[in-house]
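Appendix B, example 12.
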Amino acid sequence: MVHTHFTTLISAQNLDALINAADAGPTLTVFDCRFDLANPAAGEAAYVDGHIFGAFYMHLERDMSGKVTGKNGRHPLPDRDTLVRHLADCGVSRGQQVVAYDAQGGAYAARLWWLLRWLGHESVAVLDGGLQAWEAAGLPLSADPPEPPPPGDFTPGDPLATTADVEAVERNLATHERLVVDARAPDRYRGENETLDPVGGHIPGALNRFFKDNLGTDGRFKSAATLRAEFALVLNDTLPERVILQCGSGVTACHNALAMEVAGLHGASVYPGSWSEWCANRSRPVATGPKP
């Protein structure tokens, strides 16, 4: 009998066992979170072509983000009540195991993992290695749409994930009470090769931890011990609960949040607006280049 309470990562083999065990009742909901920022229709098209049996598609911009105003970043948090209703419509109930996957190293699946924790739901995990690991294990895909489930009784609980708003990040410029960690690629952090946002650079004082560094060469997350050691080099002596995680638009910051949870470093906050919100106001300071 496979353990049915996964809160960070789940292997392809364990997910397959849960799916087969789920024949007895609605004990599991799976979400396909594949996405491409350069082609927002690509993930859903790939889902239609083939997905893990029974999985629902979760669109980054339609389902996992809220209304963009031009001042609140490219992927602001969704309206809580709207997201709760959507999850319930997909059959999610309180305490039920949820699994999210993508084919982008967990970049988008981790956003759903974090959002569910934000809603107080603990039993949510990301498929380690994504769809590539699933297929490498010889497990099948299905082009059939999922059967409409009975509505779930999902309701939000006390948040298991915390946020930091732009005002908190601005205050921190003076107080230095918290450590800001930027999940973007090193060149974008330095202000080079910026293609997504109108301004290149990073929040002054922020350190860089590229989210892809959380993964090994096999596309799976590194071990808890390795992640803990690598994050220690970034955090130095900063307690996890004093860390603010950000990225371009609040998506891959969740990947660092997941990696820190795997490492046993609990309590970091995510700045949902991230760089895309920060740089929308040209009065906010910008740093470029490597931190001296």
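The chain is about 30% helix and 10% strand. The mean pLDDT is 95.
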